[in-house]
Each structure stands twice: as structure tokens, then as C-alpha cells.
Design a protein that fits this description.
alpha+beta, 4-stranded antiparallel beta sheet, elongated
Length: 142
């Protein structure tokens, strides 16, 4: 999502909604920057969190679960979630139905796994991103 689209979406939020969203710590760098500017335009001086470091992004979101993947698109979250499920890791997309309309505005979709599965899930994600689990293209086999 680009800066202008975020600005339009944030302009529609109430002061309380915008502040709550900013304090959630789940916004991307771009989204947080746009939100800060919107608050400044409204002359609201709310304490703002800094961006989460890569390590804190994997802190437990709810008791017993951790975020292992974030994305701005629902389809990508569903693909990752499906792959983790196939690998036997119980996972789900946090707030999937709530965020379908505002997912990218709220900082994207998060795939959660039980804490005991974080290491394995991170390894699978690493393999996915490295292309190790990609299927061969049928056209290349001919």
C-alpha cells in the first residue's frame, strides 16, 4: 500500500482509533510514519512506540503463540499458513477476518504458531524464502 492510500485511510479513523493502532506496535515503517504525520496534523501529541526490532517481532502475541511471519497481503499469509499446516505445525492467521478490509493499514497479516513450534516454523519459512520448497515448472521438464 502506498503513502497516499494510507493517508486517506488514516484520515477516516477517529483520534482514538488512530492512537490505538499506532500504539499496537504492529505497523510497518511506512504506516507508522504516515500515522505520525496524521496525528501531527490533528495536533495530537501521543506517545508513539518505535518500530519493533526483528527480534521483538517474534515475541508472543497472545499467551502461548508467537508471530513468525508478517505480510501486507492476505493471500501470502494464507499460503504460508497452509504450508506450516502441511508441515504439521498448528498455525493460524491472526485476526484474519477482521483485517481483510484493513489488513495493510493495520500493519499487515500475522501468522501465529505455538511457542514450541517457532524454531521449526522459522526454518520452514527460511526454506520457502530460499526457494528450497518450490515446485518444478512443468515447462522446464519438457
Amino acid at each position: 500500500m502506498d503513502r497516499e492510500t494510507l493517508a486517506r485511510e488514516y484520515d477516516r479513523l477517529s483520534d482514538e482509533e488512530l492512537i490505538r493502532m499506532c500504539k499496537s506496535g504492529g505497523l510497518t515503517e511506512l504506516a507508522l510514519d504516515v500515522a505520525r504525520k496524521e496525528l501531527a496534523q490533528r495536533k495530537i501529541d501521543a506517545p508513539m512506540p518505535s518500530l519493533a526490532s526483528e527480534e521483538t517481532r517474534f515475541e508472543p502475541e497472545i499467551s502461548g503463540f508467537a508471530t513468525v511471519f508478517r505480510t501486507l497481503t492476505l493471500s501470502e499469509a494464507q499460503l504460508i499458513n497452509g504450508r506450516l499446516l502441511i508441515e504439521g505445525i498448528p498455525s493460524h492467521i491472526a485476526h484474519e477476518h477482521t483485517l481483510q478490509m484493513l489488513g495493510s493499514v493495520m500493519g499487515g497479516f500475522q501468522v501465529w504458531v505455538p511457542l514450541e513450534s517457532v524454531a521449526l516454523a522459522k526454518q520452514i519459512l527460511s526454506d520457502i524464502l530460499a526457494g528450497k520448497l518450490a515446485l518444478e515448472d512443468d515447462a522446464k521438464r519438457i
